[in-house]
């Protein structure tokens, strides 16, 4: 009993040392060397050493094991059974798939059976390698992505693959698809219908457009058409250059400093330009304060009216102040107007 109690602090100390050691190595984001592995074995307890050896036995590299502290928090039986299951996925190397060990065992068993059944129809033998090859991603990254979007494991593969090819054939960007894999949950009929409508409207196709609510899609088409009318075949930079009577390179230079300028919709640009020019602001004023385009027209109108009512001749800089500094300006003007007034 006494001996057991004596070793408890030692085991605790070793566990703390191990956690600190692994954390420090992971923070360095470097590969573990043979010396690191030796140091790990010196610091680790019997349970962690057993898990480490089990991983190595199943083909994991020591670097993969030591770089992922969560492995040592998994129950040994779960770890061993999970590694055995993943071998049935026929991985090129176990490092590609081991992150799937974080899934519940029932889920991993189910997916292993499914992977075996569809191994003849899924290119590269399983969905991890299919997505990794298709989207040019690292298999580990794909595993995390599929664990987050679990339907990518379970959606009928023929349908999923068909949707992918429909999108690619219609010039949908591959990276856009990867960032919005919810598109694979939608029906082929809806996707084809939306693609047809998008093409009629001459719109570049994004996955979100194919799955959004009908009213959102319709409004998107309206906005795009309105923007097209405003630009009249010009680019946004060309439109601004013409309206402000400056060379296009001036607009390009300003947008390099304030990239949001060219991201504002043409209809909003037109609305703000019409308002500012009508109110007497010159092109030079507007060009020197490009952030004015990121403000709502209602805010600009309200502030312009308020400041003029307080006897000021507002600058665009004043109109574009944040709420706090704008209110400070208003308070100063109020004090100035009421100075010397006795109640």
From TrEMBL:
The keyword rRNA-binding does not apply. Signal peptide: none annotated. InterPro entries: MTERF, MTERF_sf. Keywords: Transit peptide. GO terms for cellular component: mitochondrial matrix. Belongs to the mTERF family. GO terms for molecular function: nucleic acid binding. It comes from the Eukaryota. Gene3D superfamilies: Transcription termination factor 3, mitochondrial. This is Transcription termination factor, mitochondrial. One of its GO terms (biological process) is termination of mitochondrial transcription. Coiled coil: none annotated.
């Amino acid at each position: 009993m006494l001996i057991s109690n004596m070793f408890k602090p030692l085991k605790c100390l070793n566990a703390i040392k191990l956690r600190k050691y692994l954390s420090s190595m992971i923070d360095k984001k470097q590969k573990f060397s043979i010396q690191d592995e030796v140091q790990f074995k010196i610091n680790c307890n019997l349970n962690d050493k057993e898990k480490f050896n089990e991983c190595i036995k199943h083909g994991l590299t020591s670097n993969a094991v030591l770089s992922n502290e969560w492995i040592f928090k998994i129950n040994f039986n779960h770890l061993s059974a999970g590694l055995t299951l993943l071998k049935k996925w026929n991985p090129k190397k176990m490092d590609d798939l081991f992150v799937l060990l974080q899934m519940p065992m029932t889920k991993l068993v189910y997916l292993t059976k499914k992977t075996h059944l569809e191994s003849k129809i899924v290119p590269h033998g399983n969905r991890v390698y299919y997505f990794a090859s298709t989207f040019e991603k690292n298999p580990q990254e794909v595993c995390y992505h599929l664990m987050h979007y679990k339907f990518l494991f379970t959606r009928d593969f023929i349908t999923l693959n068909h949707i992918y090819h429909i999108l690619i054939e219609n010039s949908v960007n591959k990276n856009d698809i990867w960032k919005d894999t919810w598109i694979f949950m939608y029906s082929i009929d809806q996707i084809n219908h939306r693609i047809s409508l998008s093409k009629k409207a001459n719109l570049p196709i994004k996955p979100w457009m194919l799955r959004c609510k009908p009213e959102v899609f319709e409004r998107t088409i309206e906005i795009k058409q309105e923007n097209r009318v405003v630009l009249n075949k010009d680019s946004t930079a060309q439109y601004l250059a013409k309206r402000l009577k400056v060379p296009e390179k001036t607009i390009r230079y300003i947008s390099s400093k304030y990239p949001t300028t060219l991201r504002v919709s043409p209809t909003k640009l037109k609305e703000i330009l019409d308002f500012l020019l009508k109110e007497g602001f010159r092109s030079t004023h507007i060009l020197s304060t490009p952030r004015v385009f990121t403000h709502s027209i209602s805010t600009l109108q309200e502030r312009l009216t308020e400041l003029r009512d307080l006897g000021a001749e507002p600058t665009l800089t004043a109109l574009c102040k944040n709420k706090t500094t704008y209110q400070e300006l208003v308070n100063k003007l109020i004090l100035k107007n009421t100075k010397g007034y006795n109640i």
